[in-house]
Write a structure and sequence with these properties.
The structure is a homodimer of 343-residue chains. In chain A, strands 2-1-3-4-5-11 form a six-stranded parallel beta sheet, sandwiched between helices. In chain A, strands 7-6-8-9-10-12 form a six-stranded mixed beta sheet, with helices on both faces. Chain A folds into three domains: 56 residues, lambda repressor-like DNA-binding domains (434 Repressor (Amino-terminal Domain)), CATH 1.10.260.40; 135 residues, Response regulator (Rossmann fold), CATH 3.40.50; 130 residues, Response regulator (Rossmann fold). Chain A starts with a helix and ends in a 5-residue tail after the last strand. Chain A has twelve helices and twelve strands. The first copy, chain A, is an alpha/beta fold and 343 residues long. Chains A and B meet through helix 4, strand 1, helix 5, strand 2 and helix 11 of A and helix 4, strand 1, helix 5, strand 2 and helix 11 of B. Strand 2 of chain A pairs antiparallel with strand 2 of chain B. Chain A binds a DNA duplex (30 and 30 nucleotides) through helix 2 and helix 4.
DNA sequence: TATCATATAGCAATCGCTTGCAGTGTAGCG
DNA sequence: CGCTACACTGCAAGCGATTGCTATATGATA
């Protein structure tokens, strides 16, 4: 229903060529009289002309390659965003280098009813993208089969839970290893009574980090007091609450592994409010290496995820798929420990 | 040079229609023999076929509307990102609601030579966007005149320095007011010896916040000791360094207004390392209300910018422009003070 | 007055893909 | 054996904008 060049041309009583030339300002060296120009501009404005980008691209022989990144549009948990920003930046850098533009689609994760999902999925398909990157913590089991069926290239950052023979291309970090590294570091510091505040256990990342913790404890031959595993949600508030719960315990654990920096920061607050000091009274390890982790008091020991690299690799895998270049179906990145003063 | 449908068709010895139908899988209910399907798939793979999205969009009569957001690709200052993330989210929400997709272009701000700029500008124009949003702290005086000349709809978040009769559409927050609010709050708390760590003074935001501080001091009839204005860069390290500089002063200021939360956090570190406490020894106000500001010890009093709103309004102004709907050329948003425990 | 340069504007082909409709071959049915 | 039905495949007309080339005024010049 949108007005086309022809509509404008008819209204201005000129040809479409003329309209095109006017609207593109001074594209060629063909001169156009001021009077005609005004008439065209006027007409274009009157019919509310908006160029059809697809047609323009086609005619101009410009290529136009887009990668669509699906990110969660979660209003509350703002603190988790540096992760996405960094991943997106990694994706964008790689894509831009190869001449692809990147579009972000914020999918509604707050109301995960199937209707909303359906709407989001439709809108995503309306985006003329060559490929799609699904970001982590996206419980999109609903999307995956359809993308597969629709034959649309995509890769997933983070992998699906029960996806043992992985049908999809993905890149992920080894969260299990991360949890183990954090715990082993605490063990090396001589701690035995090590508690953990877990992430969202419905997500593989949360689950895997917990299992890493458990594996390290078990390997050290140490028992895990049942009260030492307190569930969190990755958010600072849950870290705060979880820590208060741990502080009430007796004997009190001497060290805590928080499955996210956000929770670690919340935990710090709780510890300091209780008049205890870090790391003397309680040692603390986080996970993520958020930018602010280096600027807490004391600076936080944490497990660093190569977030930008995650994005870069996701983009590389996807572009390989899009251009039919052989590439491994999935890659798992190793996190590593950043030792600061909280342990 | 890319392979087209016709190339595939010739290779597979079928018509383009058949190829199209195969590649779109099961689009219509027209059946295709398995043998043909295989042959087509094979051929497509061999010539490395990649669909031309523009042509597809055009033929399918799908509209395809894009808004391009230019954001700085600054490797070092990761801490400033929550701002952009929030702004982008505001933009995306609004755009998506109106059926526009959003693409991010990370422009290189690290090497601001004109060659890089030129390359970036060209690439941006290659993106088939209906309009462009330039984010703040972008010193893009180079872009603006060209966008104007090329007749491309755009709005700027934050305004250009010497742009008194504003030629461009923009949305901004009142940084001057923000600086004044912060300082006045400190004055109300009874402080007289108030120092400030400024932002990057080459940016309007940095300059305006400083002027707000100065205005408040002057209005209170208080002198500003020359050493009390220490220059920073918005980054935490500069806050740390700036604070050390202030701590060495005697008499020492009793309150500090840091022109960004990031710097405030750096300053906190310096204060606590010096064995002083906040707010008893030194009161501290930040600017931005980063997510982590609520989780520092003590929680940081700060000036909140309506970042998401900034993005929303930028998008609204742009879409109005794109669709030729009348709208004000620019809007200025009011920041407000969030009082926590650091004052 | 004839010729020619110049300024404007239009014609029509083209970009690569989709899709309604028509065409062909084969099998099944009476 | 003739005819209908079905399974496939191809033809060709668009989709909306761009642009090289041609056509028409208009005035200047010889």
């Amino acid at each position: 229903m949108a007005a086309t060049l022809r509509d404008v041309a008819q209204r201005a009583r000129v040809s479409t060529s003329t309209v095109s030339r006017v609207l593109n300002n001074i594209s060629t060296n063909i001169p156009i009289s001021d009077e005609t120009r005004q008439r065209v501009l006027q007409a274009a404005h009157e019919v509310g002309y908006k160029p059809n980008m697809a047609a323009r691209q086609l005619a101009r022989q410009q290529s136009f390659d887009l990668i669509c990144v699906i990110v969660p549009h979660a209003s509350p948990s703002v603190l988790t965003h540096p992760f996405y920003m960094s991943v997106v930046q990694g994706i964008a850098r790689t894509c831009q280098q190869q001449g692809y533009a990147v579009t972000l689609y914020f999918a509604d994760t707050n109301t995960p009813d199937s209707q909303t999902r359906e709407r989001d999925y439709g809108r995503i398909l309306d985006i003329p993208a060559n490929g799609i990157i699904l970001t982590t913590t996206f419980r999109d089991e609903q999307y995956v089969p359809r993308l597969l069926a629709d034959n649309i290239p995509f890769v997933h950052i983070g992998h699906l839970s029960g996806d043992s023979p992985p049908a999809t291309h993905f890149v992920d970090v080894d969260n299990f290893l991360g949890g183990r590294l954090a715990t082993e570091h605490l063990l090396q510091k001589g701690h035995q009574d090590i508690a953990t505040i877990t992430g969202d256990l419905t997500m593989p990342a949360g689950q895997d980090r917990l299992e890493g913790y458990q594996a390290a404890m078990q390997q050290a031959g140490l028992p895990v007091h049942p009260g030492w595993i307190v569930p969190g949600t990755f958010d600072p508030d849950s870290g705060y609450a979880g820590m208060q719960q741990l502080l009430a315990l007796s004997p009190r654990p001497t060290a805590v592994f928080a499955a996210s920096d956000a929770m670690a920061i919340g935990a710090m607050q709780a510890i300091q409010e209780a008049g205890l000091t870090i790391p003397t009274d309680i040692a603390l390890v986080g996970f993520d290496d958020l930018p602010q982790a280096a600027h807490t008091t004391p600076p936080l020991t944490t497990v660093q995820q190569p977030t930008a690299r995650l994005g870069e690799i996701a983009a590389e895998l996807l572009l390989a798929q899009v251009t039919a270049v052989p590439a491994p179906p999935h890659i798992i990145l190793q996190p590593h420990l950043i030792i600061r003063d909280s342990t």
